[in-house]
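R.M. (postdoc): so does anyone remember the format we settled on? I'll just put the structure tokens first.
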């Protein structure tokens, strides 16, 4: 494939409400320079995540960036170039990945991504169905097995707060397929209740009266809690519901403080999960993300895990990406939205 020297990209220079004209802008730029571990990928599809909206809203509140910041932390595409130290990939490979939050994202025609956080895409999925998987899958897998340190053989319970979203949906599936945990997930509307049941939840509870709803299921305490919705808002309920010596993990940051001492009596723990940690700090185990994506692709192609794609938007344009941002900011979406370039 002939690779041009310039590409189209979409980004932002100011943190504006998504409805404003210049909240996202199209521009032309040079193709990214490859580092020794990089793949150059011609992007064919991406998806929208809460991280996209958060970074757009927070990164340039009181300033104008000299260069537009390009978002996009899920992608599928074709390898069209590679760095000197890349192993295991060839030109023409179809790959999927979540990328690195410090680098130019997937809202561009081409993207450079470290091969150690990249894997060959599931062969059974379309580009758009595969594009919604990497970030949520990595987050869910790391939360379960790296942060909460769930052992697949143990017969315990997990409460997933925010079960119908992208991360919650994958966490339910992974817990159902790879562990012996009893899976309890929150949902508050008939359509989201059905969705989390379809993902594999054993019990569905309502986050609006969480403690009562869990205990109405005959469950006094849960061994693990994974919060992908609202850490601070559910803190007191999580403290009440967590079992002695249990573990809580969350991906949702918050302003102000929480009473961490409230966990002391139960000798319970709290741990953050951020999927970008390994790439941010180039950790010694950075390549574990490639391994997770490889295992996830095998599970998908075996029919054990299914894509959480619910909406596909067509065309790589400012209008399409604005539509995607508005959907993620509504906080009422089920599953994931993909953009097919």
């Amino acid at each position: 494939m002939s690779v041009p020297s310039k590409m189209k990209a979409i980004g932002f220079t100011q943190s504006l409400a998504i409805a404003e004209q210049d909240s996202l802008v199209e521009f032309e730029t040079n193709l990214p320079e490859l580092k020794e571990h990089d793949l150059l990928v011609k992007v064919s599809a991406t998806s929208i995540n809460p991280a996209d909206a958060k970074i757009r809203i927070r990164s340039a509140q009181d300033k104008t960036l000299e260069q537009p910041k390009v978002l996009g932390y899920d992608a599928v595409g074709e390898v069209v170039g590679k760095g000197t130290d890349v192993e295991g990939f060839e030109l023409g490979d179809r790959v999927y990945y979540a990328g690195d939050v410090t680098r130019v994202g997937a809202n561009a025609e081409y993207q450079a991504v470290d091969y150690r956080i990249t894997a060959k895409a599931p062969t059974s999925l379309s580009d758009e169905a595969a594009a919604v998987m990497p970030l949520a899958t990595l987050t869910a897998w790391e939360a379960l097995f790296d942060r909460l340190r769930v052992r697949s053989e143990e017969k315990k319970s997990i409460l997933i707060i925010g079960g119908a979203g992208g991360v919650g949906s994958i966490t339910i599936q992974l817990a159902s397929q790879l562990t012996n945990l009893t899976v309890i997930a929150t949902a508050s509307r008939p359509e989201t209740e059905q969705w989390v049941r379809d993902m594999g939840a054993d019990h569905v509870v309502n986050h609006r009266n969480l403690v009562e709803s869990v205990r109405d299921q005959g469950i006094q305490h849960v061994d693990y809690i994974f919060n992908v919705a609202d850490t601070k808002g559910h803190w007191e309920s999580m403290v009440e519901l967590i079992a002695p010596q249990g573990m809580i993990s969350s991906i949702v940051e918050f302003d102000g403080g929480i009473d961490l001492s409230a966990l002391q009596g139960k000798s319970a723990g709290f741990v953050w999960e951020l999927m970008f940690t390994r790439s941010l700090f180039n950790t010694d185990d950075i390549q574990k993300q490639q391994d997770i994506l490889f295992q996830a692709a095998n599970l998908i192609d075996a029919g054990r895990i299914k894509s959480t794609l619910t909406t596909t938007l067509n065309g790589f344009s400012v209008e399409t990406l604005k539509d995607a941002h508005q959907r993620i900011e509504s906080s009422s979406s089920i599953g994931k939205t993909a953009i097919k370039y």
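R.M.: ...and that's the designed sequence above, right after the tokens. Also worth knowing: The two ends are 18 Å apart (CA to CA). The CA atoms of residues 119 and 294 lie 6 Å apart.
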